[in-house]
Amino acid sequence: MGKDEMVDVEELMSKIKSGVWSTQDAFDCIKDLEQEYLQSSKTKEWREDYSLAAYFTSYGIFACSYRECVFPMIELCQKLLEDCPNSADQALYYLALMRLYFVTGFQPKIVEYGLKYVETGYADRMNLKSTYNSIVVAFTENDLFEEALYYLEKMIDVTRKDPAAEGVDFWNSDTINEIVYLDSLVYIKIGLGQLDDAADAAKGLEELIKTKVPDDQKSFFDIQKEFTCLYLQLYMQPQSEEVADEFVHYIHNLQSSGLAQSGISFCIRYFAEFMKLLLLKNRFQDVIEIGKFLAKSKLFTGSTSMIYSLMMKASEQMQNSRHPSEYEQISKRYIEVLEQEQNNYNAMVRSLTQEELRLMRLRKTMARDSLTGCRNRATFEIEGVRYLSDHAEGCLVFIDLDFLKEVNDKYGHESGDQYLLQFAKMMKNALSHNEFLYRYAGDEFIVLSNRSKLKIEMMLDELLRKNPIVFMLQEEARHISFSYGVVEFGEMPGDIYTMIREADHRMYQCKTKNHSRLQKKENTI
């Protein structure tokens, strides 16, 4: 790929910041990143800022809410995570995936990748706070208010324990974080049914905006604060005509506020609760007019299907009066929205399925020794105790290959690898489906078997003496030799590691005999 085809990070950041980054720009970036990924994954040579290019492409999709670009970018980020050896880059991809799933509204993945980002140890101060805030939103949206409160406190702890440096601009100041904290606290306390605490948080929010926010920024925060306080009134004065009036007035102010390009966003779910109140008060025309605004405006995030559902109920009550065709138009749009959300759902299911398949492959790879294909030590640590608890009778066998060092020194490590491969292959062929071979260390293996000690020793002696494993080394046929120690389940007190130590001790007794025997045999390593 030529340099001109690569995503330029500086240009990308500039476009996103200036607001001229389009959907087509996003698709072009994904295409170029995909092409570069295919080439770099073959050569294993990555340009230094590739991960930044992928991250900022994801950030742009998140900031602009380009839903149609989300799933292709999710798929790329998941592939990059598999091939990424750098922990700092992994942290960027976790953060990117959290934000991409935020656009889809799929809360489980927001929480999963948000926590993975936090746990990397590479989370910087600003992104750590925004990550906790995203997790808070995810839990709040699912009515998991205790969990939301826990992570909200974690978010504000970052601010209070590590204050921002003096002289930072207002948008990077601690005041912003305190505003987010108090605003979120209102919704969480409402969800917990603690309305007095919610009212205290709302008062704190009002005072903070009044005293700490610069005058030229106040309108931005006032309009958010006003809705938060109105939402509190919805619960403190349920089914109130006055609250319904105030909500309609608020919507009219919002429509004329010119905030569409300000970066402000509201969760449409909370506005739907007010529309239910309007429906209850038979204010059908207000429901339809406000619903149209909510469905089309860029100020709102979340599913619009609930809005159209409420509009349909309102139009049903009006279809025999002034607007007979209103119901048909709204019904048609409602079906279109449901179909689009079904498509989004299907895309998300495909993405989650692909991710799960990749994780299955990764788990399988991580469970195996890369050279021999045997289960590895980490897998033994997981499976060993379980195998003993599932089998009342059986044996643990500790095996050490003889003369591997000599093979490496005399013939080279490639020959030593072949020695290990041939041993593992023949050993696995000799074991049944209910016996497992683990590569425990370099030339050490462990077998978990459900055979008796006598039977497993007979099988091993068969391989050593009567029908030894043949190994071709530089066109010469040699016999593979190994030493072993066997301990029966329940033979001694202690845990599985006590058994390993005893089996290791018996293996060394066997090795002494083997070396004495092998010195007398020809064509044997």
Structural commentary:
- With 525 residues, the chain is an alpha/beta fold.
- Among the domains are: 237-366, no CATH class; 375-518, 2-Layer Sandwich (Alpha-Beta Plaits).
- The protein has 21 helices and 9 strands.
- It has helices spanning 9-18, 23-43, 50-64, 67-83, 87-104, 107-119, 125-141, 145-161, 174-191, 195-212, 218-236, 241-255, 268-280, 284-296, 305-318, 326-366, 377-390, 404-411, 413-430, 453-466, 496-518, and strands at 266-267, 300-301, 375-376, 395-401, 436-439, 444-449, 470-473, 476-479, 482-488.
- A hairpin with a 4-residue loop joins strand 5 and strand 6 (444-449).
- The longest helix has 41 residues, at 326-366.
Uncertain runs are: 518-525
Query: Could you give the count of β-strands?
Result: 9
Radius of gyration: 33 Å
The dominant shape is elongated
Provide a count of the helices. 21
Largest sheet entry: 5 strands, mixed
CATH class of the domain at 375-518: Alpha Beta
User: What's the rounded overall pLDDT mean?
Assistant: 85
The CATH architecture of the domain at 375-518 is 2-Layer Sandwich
CATH 4th-level superfamily of the domain at 375-518: Reverse transcriptase/Diguanylate cyclase domain
Query: What's the CATH topology name of the domain at 375-518?
Result: Alpha-Beta Plaits
Structural class: alpha/beta
Instruction: Give the helix level as a range of percent.
Output: 55-70%
Give the end-to-end Cα distance, rounded to a whole number of Å: 51 Å
Order of helices and strands: HHHHHHHHHHHHEHHEHHEHEHHEEHEEEH
Our estimate of the beta-strand percent is 5-15%
Question: Order of strands in the sheet with the most strands?
Answer: 3-5-6-4-9
